[in-house]
Design a protein that fits this description.
About 40% of the residues lie in helices and about 10% in strands. The chain is mainly alpha-helical and about 325 residues long. Strand 6 and strand 7 form a beta hairpin. The longest helix has 21 residues.
């Protein structure tokens, strides 16, 4: 059976995304070593020390040339890269989005630049957009309104919810400075409890330093995050939720296909969707011919086909003989 390669990749991405879910729920990685040994510009007792330690140990932020540069403004490219790491997207997967970024933002993003993959990923997932005229402005300092939009978009994309969130500000006194597009995002960001204002103001056009971003990210890492059940996510979300992979592959390569037998698909569903031991469980398809016809009707036709293919299968315990029926809504919808 011929099938869109991106569908296969989207399923595989669930493993890394759910791995990120686990890290969010278990707070932060174990702290090891000393920041003062790793970064010459981080001093013990600095107000941001613990936050920087959290994000470095979690692998979300890195330094360069032995420095963390806590007082430097964070660029749009740097922040997008951080969110790609938060989503658990590995470097190999990101490399597949570099071409997409170089096409979407051809005037200032080149395929071989270190941030191209992350920008392409975030754009294809609907987390970020350009600034017009085929530009992204990757090296411009990200402002606080843009940070709020990206953070809210990420939480919604991952379907994360902060349990018992406590906002750090009741309101902001500078709402007259908010651009129309940012009002909703800043309010949602406030409710997450990851950042407050300064003297009652949010300062939407203000620049955030790397230390300030680290502080926001540390609050996220230490929050009680409720994630979708990795065992049984909503049927309509099975591949819809990972549409960025679909868009990233099909949108660029237009019909790039690969052989995917039902046997291979069964293995993927078992290991990456249900997270079950293949030695004990097996997947048995019950309506495979209908699914094959549906998939084949869309394979190679590119993007934009908002149709679904229903895949029905049994999950059988090979030891006890018990079985349950599952129905997955495999969607070709794109953002």
């Amino acid at each position: 059976m011929k099938k869109i390669l991106a569908m296969l990749l989207a399923v595989i991405m669930t493993a890394s995304l759910f791995a990120m879910t686990a890290s969010a729920e278990t707070v932060v990685a174990e702290k090891t070593g000393s920041l003062t040994d790793e970064f010459s510009d981080i001093k013990a007792g600095a107000w941001y020390y613990d936050a920087v330690e959290d994000v470095v140990n979690a692998g979300l932020m890195k330094g360069s040339n032995g420095k963390f540069n806590p007082g430097s403004a964070m660029t749009r490219a740097e922040l997008v890269t951080v969110f790609a790491r938060m989503a658990g997207v590995d470097d190999r997967t990101l490399s597949g989005y570099a071409l997409s970024a170089s096409i979407l933002f051809r005037k200032d993003v080149k395929m071989n630049q270190w941030f191209a993959g992350a920008i392409g990923w975030a754009a294809d997932c609907g987390l970020v957009g350009g600034v017009g005229d085929k530009k992204f402005e990757p090296n411009r300092a990200v402002n606080r309104a843009e940070m709020a939009k990206l953070f809210v978009g990420f939480m919604e994309y991952m379907q994360y919810e902060v349990v018992d969130a406590v906002p750090l500000a009741d309101s902001f006194s500078d709402t007259d400075k908010f651009q129309a597009w940012s009002v909703e995002y800043i309010e949602k960001f406030r409710l997450l409890g990851f950042a407050g204002g300064d003297n009652g103001k949010f300062n939407p056009q203000g620049k955030s330093t790397r230390a300030q971003i680290a502080t926001v990210l540390s609050r996220y890492l230490n929050a009680n995050i409720k994630a979708p059940d990795p065992m049984y996510p909503a049927m309509s979300n099975f591949l819809d939720r990972y549409c960025c992979a679909t868009h990233g592959m099909v949108g660029v390569t237009m019909g790039y296909t690969a052989d995917c037998t039902l046997e291979n698909l069964a293995s993927i569903l078992l290991e990456y969707y249900l997270f079950l031991d293949p030695e004990t469980y097996e997947v048995v398809f019950t309506e495979d011919s209908e699914f094959e016809e549906c998939v084949e009707s869309y394979a190679g036709q590119g993007v934009g086909f908002g149709e679904n293919c229903l895949l029905s299968f049994l999950v059988k315990n090979k030891v006890t003989g018990e079985q349950t029926e599952e129905l997955v809504d495999v969607s070709f919808d794109l953002p």
